[in-house]
TrEMBL record:
Cofactor note as given: Binds 1 Fe(2+) ion.
Catalytic residues in the record: E150
A Pfam family reported for this protein in Swiss-Prot or TrEMBL: Pep_deformylase
Needed co-factor(s): Fe(2+)
The name this protein goes by in its record: Peptide deformylase
Matching InterPro entries: Peptide_deformylase, Peptide_deformylase_sf
Binding-site residues, Fe cation: C107, H149, H153
Amino acid sequence: MLKAGARWLTCGAMTTRPILIHPDPRLRAIAKPLPDISDEIRRLADDMLETMYDAPGIGLAGPQVGQLQRIIVLDCAKDPDAPQPLVMVNPQIVWSSDDRSVYEEGCLSIPDQYAEVERPASVKVRWLDLNGNEQDREMEGLWATCVQHEIDHLDGKLFIDYLGPMKRQLITRKMEKLKRERARGE
Ligand SMILES: [Zn+2]
């Protein structure tokens, strides 16, 4: 989502994957829960982190790289010297605060468009890590906003859905134009 300067340092064979641009039916689909953690899923997670840091962004969800599976990656530390990559499989919000906060959100699938979105200020998230262990954590601030934005992707929901219809249509038309230009190689 938001811009970040972080770089993910690795010696593995990670590759970036193309990021789908809105509008695309795959960004509106409901992603499937993962029954278990396989090597293929670990590779997908590595590639998603690489793709996110390369963009650069602070979060990425499976459907954004065409994988309709419930997996997200995020790193809201925005510190290239101390990356804090987090991979969540089958993430669920199990508690949300009544307190709300507003952040200016963006999305790697909706490049260069930003808008303020109000969401619960803190959430508790439960997920499976890449060892198949259940984890839970209470998150606040930018981390809380980011994890809610990414979990929305797994349910086919985009941050522009929180905006009024006029603003949403305006952004969608800009993205259609961007996709036409990219298809023509401009
Ligand atoms: Zn997004």
